[in-house]
User: What shape does this take?
Amino acid sequence: SSAWARVVWVVCAAALAEAMTATSPAQLGKPFRPELEKYCRLEPLSLQELKEVKDLLDSHGTLDVTRAKCKDKDGKFTGPFSASAANSKGDHSGSSMFGSWLRDNCIIAYGLYLTDPEGQGCEDSKACIASIATFLLTHEAHRIELVLGGHKDVKGAPETWMDRPHIRFIGETGLEDTKWYNHKQNDALGYFMWCRCQLALADKMPLTGDHLKLLGQLFEYLRVIECWEEHDAGHWEEHSAQHASSLGPCLAATKAFKELMKKTGLMAPCKTDTLDILDLKLSLCLKEILPNEVIRPAENAKDADSALIFLCYPLDVVDDAMGASIMERLAKCMGQVAMARYRKDSYWCKDYKEKIGDDPTKHFTDEELKERDALLVPGEEAQWCLFDPMVSAYYGKLYQKSKKPEHLKLQQLFLSRALAAITGDDCEFGAWMCCEAYYLHGDKWEPNDNTPLVWTQIDLKMALYEMEQSLLVVA
Assistant: This one.
């Protein structure tokens, strides 16, 4: 009978799904939002289903980043975004998450441009990048010149790190945050330079005048500090080391500027050999380190770090073979909800607020990190929500190029994981939100305080965009 056939089909489909999950590189758990369950699967969505997902997220404001736009005292948007947007408990103005990080803002700006190149997204992208350039020109250019002229040594102890170009500022005013912070983060500068070049390459924001001069200063700065071998704080602002994820954005920026020179005939506003030196040195160091994140110093070695996904997408500074090696390593970071930044990561470890204190965004020196790391029980690392969307997007780019069905299936798997992590009704910060991470509070995985995280929102937006491009290939 048709009823019996239906039962057999359901049982077989369930068995097939279970078998596929068992052989997948990552688990696919039950989504926190039951409305998304039909879309969180291993079989690729149709274009109509993708539209339904996007409409559902739009109706709940899941991907709305406007609430994170920084405003001046008169309520006017100033250009950049805070790291965390307003949630049901208020805003993040009392914590450092209300600051504007260059790294976050440049990825946000690129995602806004990519997913809405002819609309408001592109305009917001340009305003964001322009605000960062204004901040750097107004407050940081003199710091760069002191280093270039040999008047400041910024490669020393923590007290010298405030003399570096600041990678975080007060978005509402465009001013420096004078509180001590570890600004030894070359990847953040690389992301700004890369994103500024992408807007110029797309003919959305010509690179001229002060902006051109600024990029010349920054390239020269990276050369003078020998960024290719420097031990900086990396994406996670933590252990000083030679991070592959810091070298990647600097290399991507160098290659993008060279591409722009070729396209437009621009002259590089730096020494004639600076770009070639950066290109060569950064490429050689990355070749030596990858697919590891850190090999020096040995005490901070990491063979897998989720920050490396950004070298695959959107920076595109590794070839397909290295991308495959990075993906293989990242399997170590994949959990049942999302992905650890790296194994033995103590930030937002189990019962973090009870162990660390009232400020979950506290910044740590290298010595304080050692004390925090001692609190971690392996396997209790926080699981972060900004990586699964990027893994999905990367497999999407591979599928669009290769047309291999396995790439599309992996793209769907990691998109499903990203959708499954959207917050449920029991989240204290609100439902339908993209959070920074889930951490163990007692025996339950809960969203951490930095919810919603704009970086996660824009990553999911890019993942949905790449899925649409892939489904158009299928169609």
Residues 5-22 have pLDDT under 50 and may be disordered. The beta strands are 69-71, 77-81, 100-101, 168-170, 175-176, 383-384, 437-441, 444-447.
